[in-house]
Specification:
By secondary structure, the protein is of the alpha+beta class. The chain contains eleven helices and 20 strands. The protein binds flavin-adenine dinucleotide. Flavin-adenine dinucleotide (FAD) binds next to helix 1, strand 3, strand 13 and helix 8.
Length: 399
């Protein structure tokens, strides 16, 4: 089989890239190890994705947003940061941006479904995307002249460019000999949906407590009971996470209520709980010979600053702009200069927040008395620094 571009991975980033390249006279193959059923009807995975205003625009341009039911999109109006057991809060109001809300929240499985459906719509129109589900890429071969992959059934696909969108531990990236800096935080993030008594007013919480980090992502009311509903995120040491996962729903709900210091009143678990180990990854290179990475394969963010998929979309926009720009004037879409331009701009956009996120998590997980003093002082000073808060608001809107 011969195509112009092979994309490894039909996660949201890989599918969005296929969608953005469709209809331009290029042929695309998307290889996915999961079954067709798993990607066309993705299961709930606990993740509620905070999307910037820029990502919302990108999703509209790609036709994903229009495929999502309005009640599945929740407003993220403001955000607040809390520290320890103090009642003090640093508020990031939407008024610091030019929007009515800082961003939006959509469940990851809903985004994945929209990305799949948008890709199918594009293919029905242009017949230029070949989706190969249930197959794993086991080999990548690239040279100055040509690139290609081998699948686990020994099928060979040649192309002008191979793009890895196969998650932060990208095996394709490894096969290309690209090293990556990985940091294991030794913690797990538990995510689930809970209903509660106290209104969230569409304010997202990031609470750097002692021994745990909590987050609350405001969702639309529970469709069955009409109660306030949020995505609850509990970050604790991996062994503690394992113990929490063993609790029955009632015990877990009581535990969460206590962790949140009763600030949300009665809390009830209304979904399954999902656990994610916290490992951030930044590859040494984002591209190679006739090879590029996008999505988590390019930048594996710590979720605390909620930018993983936002950066994924940014990478998709930048890479497809470069590819289509070259294709329109009859240039080689696997050209090294093009790939290096993509690498440079994507690094510039992502590296500062990647490093900042590491710093924040390091400062706000230390618990010695001087560290606690520093944490509190930083938050109080930041609350008074409007330009600093404005820069956080702009980062959350993606502008
Ligand atoms: C708890 C949590 C909360 C998050 N919150 C946010 C948030 O608020 N905002 C935000 O922007 N981001 C957030 N993220 C990050 C976001 O979920 C990811 O950035 C996004 O899902 C990555 O998409 P992807 O397509 O790059 O990778 P993935 O979704 O990991 O998809 C990769 C695909 O590649 C396939 N694959 C892998 N290897 C192969 C192979 N060899 N051959 C074929 N197929 C292969 C896999 O099966 C998979 O389908 C969060 C992440 C977590 C864990």
């Amino acid at each position: 089989m011969n195509v112009d571009i092979v994309i490894v991975g039909a996660g949201p980033s890989g599918l969005c890239l296929a969608r953005s390249l469709s209809g331009q006279g290029l042929t695309i193959a998307v290889i996915e190890q999961q079954s067709l059923d798993a990607i066309s009807n993705p299961a709930f995975d606990g993740r509620e994705i905070a999307l910037t205003q820029s990502s919302a625009s990108a999703m509209k341009d790609l036709g994903l947003w229009q495929l999502i039911e309005p009640q599945a999109i929740s407003q993220l109006r403001d955000a607040k940061i809390l520290d320890g057991r103090s009642q003090f809060e640093m508020l990031i109001p939407h008024q610091l941006s030019k929007y009515q809300e800082l961003g939006w929240l959509i469940s990851n499985h809903v985004i994945r479904k929209a990305a799949y459906d948008a890709t199918q719509e594009a293919n029905d129109l242009h017949h230029d995307i070949t989706l190969i589900p249930g197959r794993k890429v086991i080999k990548v071969k690239t040279s100055q002249q040509i690139a290609g992959v081998v699948l686990d059934d020994q099928t060979e696909i040649s192309a002008k460019l191979v793009v890895a969108a196969d998650n932060r531990f990208s095996t394709t990236r490894r096969m290309m000999g690209i090293a990556a800096d990985m940091h294991d935080f030794g913690r797990n993030m538990l995510v689930c949906c809970m209903t509660h008594d106290t209104p969230h007013d569409h304010i997202a919480w990031e609470w750097f407590d002692y021994g745990q980090t909590l987050a609350l992502l405001p969702m639309n009311p529970d469709p069955e009971t009409g109660r306030y509903r949020s995505s609850v995120v509990i970050t604790v040491a991996s062994d503690e996470a394992e113990e929490l996962m063993k609790l029955n729903p009632e015990a877990f709900s009581r535990n969460a209520k206590e962790r949140f210091g009763n600030r949300l009143g009665e809390m009830d678990l209304v979904s399954t709980i999902h656990s994610y180990p916290l490992v951030s990854v930044y590859p040494k290179r984002l591209v190679g010979t006739r090879f590029a990475t996008v999505g988590d394969a390019a930048v594996g963010m710590h979720p605390v600053t909620a930018h993983g998929f936002n950066f994924g979309l940014l990478g998709v926009q930048k890479l497809s702009k470069e590819i289509l720009g070259a294709h329109r004037v009859g240039k080689d879409i696997g050209d090294q200069a093009l790939l290096l331009r993509y690498e440079r701009t994507h690094r510039l956009k992502t590296k500062p927040l990647f490093l900042m996120t590491r710093l924040i998590t390091e400062i706000y997980t230390k618990e010695s008395p001087p560290a606690k003093f520093l944490r509190k002082a930083l938050l109080h000073v930041s609350e008074k620094l409007t330009p600093f808060k404005k820069s956080i608001a702009l980062s959350l809107t993606g502008r």
